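tokens incoming
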């Protein structure tokens, strides 16, 4: 196993302005990390801005992980897909740029979100708040990575994982439709009385 740090070209935390519900600046929340993709519906708004705000906008294909959260949720990761608009990533998300000849961002998502990743990142020592775990850049870079530099093997694992995720998303859609149908039936029952 090789340490992840050798493939990291840059890592940068985001910006967390006070969210006032006003303004046009959309700031992602930590709940935006969904099954390896950024959910751009998970935002709060602010009227604040800064001169270098462009540095904090999410761009297509970028990799992010939560650097602070509960032990179970710390270091969950996702890729920005289908970015349509300007979204600021918050301070508790870290953007990582990888040398793609060593680690593909999509493969990093699989690793971070795997049982191995959950165990590794969940073991980081607690900070000042017992329930809030924070992963430093140094700790993230010590993550041991299988298939480091074997991009073809990484692509095969990504393809296999994508099929599983697609199946889960299809199940979610069916569950969502079933819940809507149940709610419609309950509304009809309650309004007929």
């Amino acid at each position: 196993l090789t340490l992840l740090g050798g493939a990291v070209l840059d890592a940068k935390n985001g910006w967390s302005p006070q969210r006032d519900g006003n303004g046009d600046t959309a700031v992602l929340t930590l709940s935006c990390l969904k099954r390896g993709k950024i959910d751009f519906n998970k935002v709060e708004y602010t009227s604040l801005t800064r001169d270098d705000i462009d540095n904090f906008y999410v761009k297509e294909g970028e990799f992010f992980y939560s650097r602070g959260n509960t032990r179970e949720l710390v270091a969950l990761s996702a890729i920005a897909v289908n970015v349509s608009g300007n979204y600021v990533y918050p301070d508790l998300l870290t953007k990582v740029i990888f040398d793609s000849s060593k680690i593909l961002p999509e493969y990093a998502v699989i690793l971070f979100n795997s049982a191995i990743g959950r165990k590794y990142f969940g073991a980081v020592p607690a900070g000042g708040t017992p329930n809030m775990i924070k992963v430093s850049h140094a700790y993230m870079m010590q993550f041991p990575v299988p298939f480091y530099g074997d991009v073809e093997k990484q692509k095969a694992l990504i393809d296999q994982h994508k099929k599983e995720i697609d199946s889960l998303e299809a199940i979610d859609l069916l569950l969502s439709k079933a819940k809507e149908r149940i709610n419609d039936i309950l509304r009809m029952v309650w309004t007929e009385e």
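note: The chain is about 35% helix and 20% strand.
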